[in-house]
Specification:
The chain is α/β, with parallel strands linked by helices and 107 residues long. The chain is built from 4 helices and 3 strands. It has one domain: Transcription Regulator spoIIAA. The protein has a 3-stranded parallel sheet, sandwiched between helices.
Length: 107
């Protein structure tokens, strides 16, 4: 993911939240092999924007090497919720939007 794409994602996502009034955002980063501090900051900023707009963001598909790199860079990314895959991420979003929803017995 290059810098312009990251900024575009942030802008597009903000506009979509305004248009749709969504309460949840799921971002799949499984295609990212590496991250740097800039991309980490962008993801953290997107999470903050989503929170200010009264929605929840879940980041899914983080590869182990990406997680290790973020930790080694000292990036804590406060407020960023994570899940291993899209299915678990959607379940987490559902519980965040509707806390009365219980997880499926099969998960």
């Amino acid at each position: 993911m290059h810098d312009e794409l990251a900024i575009g994602l942030q802008d597009d996502l903000t506009q979509k939240l305004i248009k749709t009034g969504s309460h949840g955002v799921l971002i799949d980063i499984s295609a990212l092999d590496i991250v740097d501090t800039y991309i980490g900051r962008i993801l953290s900023q997107i999470s903050a924007i989503v929170g200010i707009m009264d929605a929840t963001m879940v980041l899914v598909g983080m590869r182990p090497a990406v997680a290790i790199t973020l930790v080694e860079l000292g990036m804590t990314m406060p407020g960023v919720r994570t899940a291993l895959n899209v299915d678990k991420g959607l379940a987490l979003l559902r519980r965040s939007v509707d806390p009365t929803e219980m997880p499926d017995a099969g998960q």
